[in-house]
Amino acid sequence: MTSLLALLFCLIAFAFLAVAMERHQETLFRRLLPAGQTRGFRIAGWCALVLALRFVVDQKGWALGLVNYSGYTSVAAGLVFGGLTVYERMRG
Q: What is the DSSP letter of 20?
């Protein structure tokens, strides 16, 4: 259960970090978000990554936890990247 929660937090984190980028804001919203919202998405994304790391390390320890965390972040980043790519191609 904790693994699924950590993966979900990583997925949300990378989605927030993607929305904090100007290029993706234009793709998703057709406009740039205000600086405060962009900063909020960036902070929320990094906080979610830290929480995911905490969940994994608490469950599996530092040695195996960091390996699992690396895998979760890789999968989550790939899913967000793939989702944005598909969305952009379907929209354009």
A: T
pTM for the full model?
0.92
Q: 3-31, pLDDT tens digit by residue?
A: 899 999 999 999 999 999 999 999 999 99
Residue of 65, 64, 22 whose CA lies nearest to 42? 22
Question: Positive or negative, the Cα torsion across 17, 51, 74, 72?
Answer: negative
Alpha carbon separation from 75 to 11, 18, 33, 55, 80 (Å, rounded): 8, 15, 27, 17, 9
Domain of residue 31: give its range: 2-91
Count of structural domains, the chain:
1
